[in-house]
Amino acid sequence: MSQTTPDIQIPAELLPADGRFASGPSKVRPEAVSALADIADGYLGTSHRKSGVKDVVHRLRSGLDALFDLPEDWEVVLGNGGTTLFWDAATFGLVRNRSQHLSFGEFSSKFAKCTDAAPFLADPVVIESAMGSHPIPVADERVDLYALTHNETSTGVTMAPVRPAGANDDSIIAVDATSAAGAVRWDTDEVDCYYFAPQKALASDGGLWIACCSPKALDRIAELDASGRWIPPGLSLQTAVENSVKDQTYNTPALATIFLTVHQVEWFNENGGMDFAAGRSEANADVVYGWADASDYATPFVAAAGERSPVVATIDFDDAVSADTLAAVLRANGMLDTEGYRKLGRNQLRIALFPAIDAADLTQLTQSIDYIADQIRGS
User: Fold this and answer.
1) pLDDT given for residue 1 in this prediction
2) How confident is the prediction for the chain on average, in pLDDT?
3) What CATH number does residue 102 fall under?
4) Are 251 and 113 in contact (CB under 8 A)?
5) Do 218 and 120 sit in the same domain of this protein?
6) In the chain, count of helices (H) and strands (E)?
7) Cα–Cα distances in Å, from 275 out to 29, 52, 185, 195, 230?
8) From CA 22, how far away is CA 17, in angstroms rounded?
9) 72 vs 1, 76, 184, 193, CA distance in Å?
């Protein structure tokens, strides 16, 4: 420990069984790691164009179709690179001329920056709100894509994706669901492209993007692909669609990432689907927000209870208790990655509530925080 970190040993009875509370990459369930090891000899290091891998990709696409109860005419599309790369791909392959973006945190602002920099697009419309809240989309006849964020990982704010009343009939609703997918319910009637990476609620590694696409989104992708607009091959959504329906990706994927995602999705589906997955996160949220609401030194950062994320809790602390000290002592005692999001600059912890995390471990975490705070305030 550094000289600025108190040497506080948390009693063993307060320690969680698993101390991983990161907001991404998330805790990977030990059962998934064991299952990957069991099939490694015939899976890892094999061709992604052959049945051994294509069968796993098919399981992933089918599993997500069942988990989200997608309509029959939707497609689950995969590509390499994660959500950051998908923003670039969507800039080329989903936005016809102008997009509208809701910006209420670090990640929800990034897609807007992509479309703003694109020389072939009109300036985007950006609607912002204060950190700890979210704005509302507004119908605009100039806009052909509305970019929403289901859960802002940096601030712990969630919002239900809703199609703006009065929006043009052919406009696309694209939703960044990276930290929400598999843990927060959504309505396919309100969305055309629900995209995410699997390193959060889906308890896998990064490096993959997944997009659930409606017929309207698929038509837009095909339209722009045929429009004469130059699209780099690696960012072509049409190429991703054509490969995905064959249960493969355009270029070599991370096989471990795909398998771990499949394992998590099938665990959800075998135990009740979204009701099971979302229920676990909601139970986790009850533990952490209930503790903070009852605390005399901790407060949920998001004031409106209905906007508090069920997958990432941001908790503010009184000045007498340093969140940096709390995080450092927790880390020294095996509870990892509870630090607040650096760009918010608040006296705050950020705690993951993903389905892979057990509520009992979060109860132990809150008791450990109380123990550290008592030691700090009593010194």
Assistant:
1) 41
2) 96
3) 3.40.640.10
4) no
5) yes
6) 10, 12
7) 19, 31, 8, 20, 42
8) 15
9) 55, 11, 21, 15
CA distances from 101 to 135, 144, 308 (A): 10, 11, 20
- For 226-233, which contacts have Cβ atoms below 8 Å and span 24 or more sequence positions? 229/92, 229/120, 231/92, 231/93, 232/92
User: Roughly what angle, to the nearest 10 degrees, separates helices 82-93 and 110-117?
Assistant: 40
Nearest in space to 4 (alpha carbons), one of 322, 348, 336: 322
Q: Are 140 and 100 in contact (CB under 8 A)?
A: yes
Angle subtended at Cα 348 by Cα 199 and Cα 323, rounded to the nearest 5 degrees: 110
When pLDDT is averaged across residues 160-173 and rounded to a whole number, the result is 97
Please check whether residue 197 is in contact with residue 178, taking contact to mean a CB–CB distance below 8 angstroms.
yes
Residue 378: the pLDDT is 82
Query: Could you tell me the pTM of the whole model?
Result: 0.96
Q: Domain boundary residue among 240, 270, 300? A: 270
In this predicted structure, what is the pLDDT of residue 342? 86
Q: How many domains does the chain have?
A: 2
Residue 109, helix vs strand vs coil: coil
User: What pLDDT does residue 379 have?
Assistant: 58
> Quick one: average pLDDT of 190-198?
98
